[in-house]
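Retry 2 of 3 after timeout on previous attempt. Resubmitting structure tokens to design endpoint.
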């Protein structure tokens, strides 16, 4: 493992832990090789559900829905996001069931037992809004991802035109997940959700999640969960009772998750030139892909 500091533009660096030709967040615990081994050997329970996302694709949103459904209560959880990436397995193994685990890692690094018989919810978001959301988040963080201090343009270079950012190149991530979801002899169940579909019709997506969890609720409860998990309600509810750990990892001590929750904000950030360059790269990288992303709704 190496600690890498990449220069992303004059005077600006991104700092990551590099191992196995992949860039892990600088805050990845200890030695990457050892931590990956613990993740791979993590003991999975039948009731576990793993939430998989590229950062800023709707992780907290879907986690809240899953938590309400599992508890049978349309009330916000105060649990932290239990991430395989950042928590020690010994701590996660002690959590009460059913556990909601989370990871931004490519499929190849996930627990072996999960791949055999687990339940995964994979959430995608259009790459342009993902980049905007990521840029706005990392600016607020004192550490965690990669201590990135560069411009929006530099971030685009890092995640779309190289792999210099924590969790690697966005195209590599979605393409590996697409290959995984296409595998017919896969042991685990994967529900693939799109951020934009959740925005368009939250209720039917809450129902899809309940189905994956084998929970058959009446429409009344599904509607209640969807209502609690609109952007406005979640922002108010969660920000009034934030997790204490945000105080230590953001510059202003506030929860940096609920910004706009929109589809199409990228229009306010991408220059015409950046947009053209991105579209060209997308066409090149995704020419063999069947994935589609929605840039407006
Ligand atoms: P924006 O920065 O575009 O607002 P993650 O949880 O993976 O870090 O993703 C965060 C993004 O999801 C943020 O996007 C945030 O506003 C959005 N989000 C969180 N909860 C949401 C909700 N209930 N409805 C819509 N968007 C939501």
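Retry 2 succeeded. Sequence:
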């Amino acid at each position: 493992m190496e600690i890498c500091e990449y220069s992303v533009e004059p005077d600006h660096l991104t700092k990551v832990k590099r191992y196995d030709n992949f860039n892990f967040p600088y805050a990845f615990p200890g030695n990457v090789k050892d931590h990956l081994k613990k993740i791979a050997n993590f003991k999975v329970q039948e009731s576990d559900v793993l939430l998989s996302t590229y950062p800023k694709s709707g992780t907290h949103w879907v986690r809240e829905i899953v938590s309400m459904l599992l508890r049978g209560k349309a009330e916000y959880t105060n649990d932290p996001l239990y991430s395989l990436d950042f928590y020690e397995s010994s701590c996660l193994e002690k959590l009460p069931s059913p556990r909601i685990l989370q990871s931004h890692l490519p499929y190849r690094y996930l627990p072996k037992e999960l791949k055999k018989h687990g339940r995964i919810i994979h959430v995608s978001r259009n790459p342009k809004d993902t980049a905007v959301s990521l840029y706005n988040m990392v600016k607020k963080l004192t550490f965690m991802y990669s201590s990135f201090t560069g411009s929006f343009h530099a971030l685009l270079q890092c995640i779309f035109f190289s792999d210099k950012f924590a969790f690697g190149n966005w195209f590599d991530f979605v393409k590996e997940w697409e290959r995984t979801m296409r595998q017919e002899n896969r042991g685990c169940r994967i529900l693939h959700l799109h951020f934009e579909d959740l925005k368009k019709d939250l209720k039917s997506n809450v129902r899809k999640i309940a189905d994956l969890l084998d929970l058959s609720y009446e429409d009344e409860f599904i509607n209640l969960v969807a209502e609690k998990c609109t952007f406005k309600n979640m922002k108010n509810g969660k920000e009034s009772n934030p997790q204490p750990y945000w105080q230590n990892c953001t510059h202003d001590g506030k929860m940096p998750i609920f910004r706009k929750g929109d589809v199409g904000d990228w229009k306010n950030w991408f220059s015409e030139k950046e947009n053209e360059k991105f579209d060209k790269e997308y066409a090149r990288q995704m020419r063999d892909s069947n994935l589609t992303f929605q840039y407006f709704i």
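Attempt log closed. The radius of gyration is 18 Å.
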